[in-house]
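Hello,

Our lab assistant flagged a job as stuck in the queue for most of the afternoon. It eventually completed. Since we weren't sure the result was trustworthy after the delay, we are filing this so someone can double-check. Below is the sequence as submitted and the structure that was eventually returned. Let us know if re-running is recommended.
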Amino acid sequence: MVRPTTDMLVTVALFVVSPGVVASSVRPNVHGYNSSWMAEVRDMILSGKVPPDLQPPLAALVRSANGALRLSGGGACPEKGPWSVTADPVTPPSGDKHDFSYISTYAWPCNAMCPPTFGAHCAQWWRRPSWVKNTTKYPDWSKCDNATGLPWIGHDGFGQPQGQHDTGCSVQMSDSVSTLAIAYYFSSNETYATAAAALLNTWFIDPATAMNPSLSFAGYTPGASNGSSSGIIATSLRWNSKVSDAARLLAGSPSWPATSQALLNKWNAEYLDWLLSSKMGQGEGRATNNHFTWYSVQTLALALDVGNSSAATNIVARCTAQSTPGALDHQIRSNGLMPLEAARDASVSYSTMNVVGLFTLATVASYVPGTSPLWTYKAADGTGSMQSALDFLSAFGTNKSNVWPYSQDGKSNWQDMPWTNLAVPLRIASILYNDPSYEQSIVKLPWPAGEADTFVKEDVSRLLWPVMASQEQFDLSTLDP
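-- returned structure --
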């Protein structure tokens, strides 16, 4: 049993005493979470009847939101927020500071050698990236200018730090606004809404700082291209449905009036149009791996948010259409293996990232009327099942003796692989498939010492999705020391 600490009691008190708020079961207009459960949790908070098992995640949410209020910078985005693409010290190839741009994450000067910071992983430096055709000479030294390092070329799995401002600040913005908006929804604490609104206004609305609604210069490669369709992953993976949902969770706040939501709707509609109709956007829509998954998540979330029902229906249909290169059938084999993710240098990272994307996609798709659920989809030959994909990965992620047979940045230690990325999909699967063993297996993932217990009890996803298994059903004694 979870015993409330002083921190938890203070947190619950802060949530309950917000003045002028009446309990209501109206669902929030979100698409990436379980809106019914969120409304139920909010009613528990407002009525002062928060069960003990929800007090730890509420306390964790408050800590995260209070941290987000600091709008701290870091890494590729060193400045303090609110953030804007116009603060990027590197001017985009277009010359317009309002364009979102960044150098392709895995691109390096053609004459660059592997930095020693990558250690033993440098043995894979000249491995042909999966996106380079076998008919293309790699590397082609005849085309490399030693004086300039142009054109830059790709080294899969080796991220470089140059020209990453906009992606770094995009992550800071989306993570912060999501945390703040969720905290506001459950607490009605206007401090959170004010900060979240400032982030949205600066990034999307204020003419002086707003990003143009396109990604024409995302993932550019110096000396080779001014942009790439694969660069769209910078927003589809990081924003997906979180940013549009965050704005909707601010509904009713004086800091986010209807006029602000209308302006964001206009931006979202223009961005959706670019994603669906531009050459780069359509190119990403023909991707065959996780890029298609996350592209579908973002376009679907935007379509639902702006009320484009025909686009939403079409996006869901493409996910299982045989003519779609990235359809579920083509991504997932009958045994659950996702071969295009397994072929990557960081195969565990990409495989688990895609499963997270698939479950997010199915969540958003569940809000499209008249469509069949993607949760349970399986082609006649057994391919295309996201449940099978999760089962395949969790068989390795929860069993130290079951050795992963593919590459993971040169690592071989089970404990060093990012299997804990499966925790939230496992939690969601326990509800969707009515099988508590999924949630019970969370503690079997390779958590650092003590973190399994923390996740089980405190993860904020407990406020966004129901929990099937009770705390007492988790046997924490089975964890490796």
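-- support follow-up --
The delay was a queue issue, not a problem with the job. The result is valid. The first helix runs from residue 6 to 16. The two ends are 22 Å apart (CA to CA).
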